[in-house]
Amino acid sequence: MSIEGIRTRLNASCGLLMVFAWLTLTLPAESASSIIPIGQLRSGRSVQGAPFDVKPKREGQTVRIQGLIHQTLLSPGSQPDRQNHAFLIQNLPSHADGNDKTSDGLLVYTGKPTIPWDDRRTAYLPKVGDWIVLEGRLQHRYGQTELGRPHLVHLLKEGVNPSSALPRAELTPDPVLSKTLQYMETLEGMRVVLPSNAVVVSGRKVIGNHTESYAWVLPASDPVANRVQAYQNRVFRDAHPLDDLPDTLFDNDNGARVLLGSHGIKGMTGRPDALLPALRVGDRLTGACVGGVIYSYGQYKIMPIHSPSFEQGMDPFKNVITEVFQQESG
Q: How much of the chain is helix, strand and coil, in % rounded to 5?
């Protein structure tokens, strides 16, 4: 055999070895049938208004999933020195169920910073960018589907970039609240993007003994966010002359609003005291806001992975009435 022929066979053998090594790295030892796409764990039923409670098909069962950790979450516990830890995991597109009516993401509640490895002798610290096989008990708490009592089965790969590995899901909520609830249910646990230039429609609210913060924003694509008068770029109660449907009573409940929270900032920084920046009505989001969707206390929320940056809007103290109308005396 010629030298070139030997080189060709060696190159082909090396290629096969590389493919085999990749398969060994990425595929678990057990059969693929034991791993369930996250979307198949959910009911897939439509949400018809609020309140609602969409429970998973396999509630209470032990299930095995695989996916990419795209966010860690941290929230205050019942005691000041104890925090609640969790993370969000999402199927890669090639492992998803392909049903756009079911979410490909899931909240994994750990309670503590680490979870057991499969041999139950090694602790695993969940990290963003880890592609893993995970096993736990599927449960439904406070309206949210989640995986409890988790343990790691396989760490398939580290350092995977969620921005490139997961699809870009831009938020497009509907002005009708019931439709937005259905839409957000299909994104629960997933990584989403709120495009830049969203307008703040409520000041930052700090609750829970200054441990939690929330703020409502309106996507820049919404017509209300693009009114000529800056002081009118906000939502109003039904029947208000500046409501998006001023001639209709009790109409859509301003369903296009998006609620931002601080659990993601706490989780990514490791600081339980981290809050959203101070905001006021009329401020604008200067960059895209990326974070996971969770459900708690009757609301879907976006948990940004980084503290959002805003530019200051119009000064509310300058929004004064310039004309006074006197009532005619009868």
A: 20, 30, 50
Helix (H, G, I), strand (E, B) or coil at 6: helix
Domains 31-165 and 177-318 share a fold: yes
Structure tokens at 211: 């441990």
Of 147, 180, 172, 122, nearest to 66 (Cα)? Answer: 147
Paired sense of beta strands 115-116 and 123-124, if any: antiparallel
On the CB side of 232, CA atoms within 13 Å amount to 11
Residue among 219, 247, 244, 224 at smallest CA distance from 234: 224
Q: Where are the domains of the chain?
A: 31-165, 177-318
* Residues contacting 268, CB < 8 A, separation 6+: 71, 72, 128, 305, 306
Instruction: Please say whether the beta carbons of 123 and 116 come within 8 A.
Output: yes
CATH fold of 31-165 reads: OB fold (Dihydrolipoamide Acetyltransferase, E2P) (2.40.50)
- Give the tokens for residue 225: 């966010």
| Alpha carbons 60 and 147: distance in angstroms, whole number | 10
* pLDDT tens track, the chain, 330 positions: 444 453 444 344 444 333 333 334 444 445 455 999 999 998 655 444 444 556 787 888 999 999 999 999 999 876 666 789 999 999 999 999 999 889 999 999 999 999 999 766 789 999 999 999 999 999 998 889 999 999 999 999 999 999 999 999 999 999 888 899 989 999 999 999 999 999 998 889 998 878 899 999 999 988 877 777 777 777 777 677 777 777 777 777 888 899 999 999 999 999 999 999 999 888 999 999 999 999 988 899 999 999 999 998 877 777 766 665 566 655
CB 190 within 8 A of CB 293: yes
| Length, in residues, of the chain | 330
Q: Could you tell me which CATH class the domain 177-318 is placed in?
A: mainly beta
State the Cα–Cα distance between residues 187 and 193, nearest whole angstrom.
Answer: 11
